Amino acid sequence: MNRFSTQNTQDTQDDENFSFLEYSGGDTQASQYDYNDFSLESQQTNTLLDGSQSQFVEPDLSGVGADELDAFQDLAIVERELPEHACRYCGIHAVNSVARCVTCNKWFCNSRGNTSGSHIINHLVRAKHKEVALHPDSPLGETTLECYNCGCRNVFLLGFIPAKSDTVVVLLCRQPCAAMPSSKDMNWDTSQWLPLIDDRCFLAWLVKVPSEQEQLRARQITAHQINKLEELWKDNTEATLEDLEKPGIDDEALPVLLRYEDAYQYQNIFGPLVKMEADYDKKLKESQTQDDIVVRWDVGLNQKRIAWFYLPKLESGEVRLAVGDELRLRYRGELHPSWECVGHVIKIPNNVSDEVGLELRRSDNTPVECTHNFSVDFVWKSTSFDRMQAAMKTFAVDETSVSGYIYHKLLGHEVDPQVLRTQMPKRFSAPNLPELNHSQVYAVKSVLQKPLSLIQGPPGTGKTVTSATIVYHLAKMNPGQVLVCAPSNVAVDQLTEKIHATGLKVVRLTAKSREALDSPVSFLTLHEQVQNNDTHVELQKLIQLKTEQGELSSSDEKKYKMLKRACEREILQNADVILCTCVGAGDPRLSKFKFRTVLIDEATQATEPECMIPLVLGCKQAVLVGDHQQLGPVIMNKKAARAGLCQSLFERLVILGIRPIRLQVQYRMHPCLSEFPSNMFYEGSLQNGVTTQDRLRKHVDFPWPAPETPMFFHSNLGQEEISSSGTSYLNRTEASNCEKVVTKFLKSGILPPQIGIITPYEGQRSYVVSYMQFNGSLRKDLYKDIEVASVDAFQGREKDYIILSCVRSNEHQGIGFLNDPRRLNVALTRARYGVVILGNPRVLSKHPLWHHLLVHYKDKNCLVEGALNNLKKSMIQFRPHRAYRKDEKFRQGLVHQVDAREAFAKPPLASENRRGSRAYDSDFMRTHDPVGYIPSDMNSIPSSSQFSIPLLPTPNGPFTQDLSQSSVSSRKNVKQQNSSYGGGYTNSISSQGPLTQNAYSSQGSMSLALSQSDRLRMMENQTSLSHGSLMSQDSSIGYLDDYKSQGNDTILSQDFEIRSQTGC
InterPro entries per the record (predicted)? Predict the structure, then answer.
């Protein structure tokens, strides 16, 4: 158990009056607070260091000149074999500057080198190791760092505090020991607790930071090399930097393209990416075995055994546990024979409980009398990846998988627009659904006439109602079933409810692992409809028999399966609409069906291969609904993400020039809350369907700085800390202020379910939940009902009041994926009545996106500081931000085969390190980068539409000239453009003729996709784009009013008009 003595044995008499409080205020890097002022008393070493132990042996170099000395030392460094305790990254081996990872026994130093954190912290984070020991010859002696109170050795949890009555420093873990009230009764000033790790380095008095000279003479290693080396160590613990030079180690996957020659090229590029993600996911889950699990047993309503337990490793966030996932529970103790059983998850950790609920498949021989010595394995299933691969293969080899028009549009070939000849309904609103506004009516009308449509639904614009209305009309107008999909079960369930309300026959198809789970639409699921089908009497008897006995004889089981399949097929054939997840569309029960019409909701959250699963079931009319300005798909494998697997099909089609139909009227947010997202992310096009009076609650006594503007940004200067997982962050100051704001909301009469706390980091989420439980001034049960979740978990949902905790507050680390515009867009648009943001404006304002937000809040007098009951306007001044360089992202537009990622923003650069070099911010690796760019200075745009997306170039490829000669090309011979479109809607499709200049304009060797806004006109007297010249910031094209409403295509945007007048 660790206590740092502030008495050095050589200077005991001189330091009797040493006061720790002089230094506990924060500057632990000060010279008087140096590492050699401390010694360590622990379970391993109980004696204090004497003077001889604190001296270092130096070679006798007397008589050697300065130049000769430098040469001698350089030569010695090169020739000398590094000792065992040398840093495995850079070779630094000063005993006071290195520490040993207890888990793998490798040594690392406390220098940053060319990385944002010290080498020892880099290793601990990437290897997910958490225990550290100091060198035996270090001033503090050999010891493993641990909590004085409980013995916890997780260095990411450890911090130090002074003892009130002694000149010692005590190590305590952040939770629970430093937070326990009892700690305050042990002569420890817990309010002075500070973490041992600051700015991703150990404090210098614990592990000395090597000098500049030592670092310059050390081996230079980059963050990229460190990542590769850590990957190699997973398979070969003795791998070295030289192994990184071996062929194949650093191979990158082929990047995704904007256009594809044919479906075989498409499959050859996406297939390896899907396999890469599958292999990574498999390896990750199989490595997540957790031992020493304590289980409590229960029995569900269906008489199946349920095991309840905690999974400590879930906080790392690397493995996402979802309801319906399969886990294997094993017992290897002495009280019962070895046992294991697979079950599916019925409950995941939440605010109320961190327990996981696992329903077992079978209950025989279950060791219910045992509670300890269990292990949990993640069961990896390849189903989703197999279905993606199968869909891409079908797309390539089966000509009936999609229509010719859809085939060419998906591959990015330029074909003439198609219009479906169809009789429009007299009334566009669907029964039992809200009346549609003008933009929703336009969306429905447009979709019914096109074989391929994109609908962009900004937050709160009624996207689900619009989708349900479209499905209603498609089902009424076309024969056969309409297939409706979404990447998540929650989104599918929401659509199921809306579509069922219209009176259509709806079937919700779920995975068999989710059949036992309850949902609002359970009565519409296929398995429930089978069980409640009275027309199949014999099947009902077998179902009842199986329920009573638990199993059937082999003959009865065979008959049961046959009758069940027949009943399922009958129900599906009689349905108007079938709903399932995108992966669920690959269910064998749908393999015999052909779906002419497919709608994919939340399409921007699905990968391209995921979207292909429902599309290849015979699609002739496709509707993709989503919002590319909100979060995209989650890809775990960074190499696959860099190659472009993180880009959705919706985004690629937008870049190719297919203009999405935007819904314009938002019904969720108070007008003041929608103003910034509308201007920043949607060019100011969002209209408010609610008034200020609709979203003001006068009976709520909350101290808004401006009563008519229910929002504020509260300045929090507390520093971020690494969470216990080592891979996430928390901010104790913000957590404390979260509790204060929540308590004030509750005292004002707001109910707990009306409040949501959003934080980007799992470490902060967990800490806020715990902090409110232990430190909240009201009843604990009130805080339990307040949802604390990530940005991702809140997408597609809303609360009356939202508190956003930004967490990041540092000097060198940047702000991670807070810099992702989509993440901020989602976070700001969840609230209906009010928003409170907690963050460090000095750190956040360094980034253009947050700079604009902070300026906006300051202009509204909503940037404040101080106590909640005495808020004062913040006097912080923001520097004018330098111009944002946006022409770089179009530089590759002149190349034929364009990497689709090049039309997207690059990850933000971290701040410069001490050597002046800059590296990509590794925390930004959720890589669904924005289509649009973030303007550096909103005042420089002379328009009420303060955010514009620059014109996206479309490279001139083999399909940009010839394909327009025919209405639609056959997919049999792509290079011969002579055959005509056939099948499906042949008789109802008429060509609109060749594209006009407003749709596509070709200049020189570049084709510019102007179809995003055919209101634009080419400006005169400007430098033209010819023969592959680059489009600069002052290009003659100006800016696209890209996704404006479709109301009057002849009206130029204000942005365009002003630029035309000023000659910009």
Answer: DNA2/NAM7-like, DNA2/NAM7-like_C, DNA2/NAM7_AAA_11, Helicase/UvrB_N, P-loop_NTPase, SF1_C_Upf1, UPF1_1B_dom, UPF1_CH/ZBD
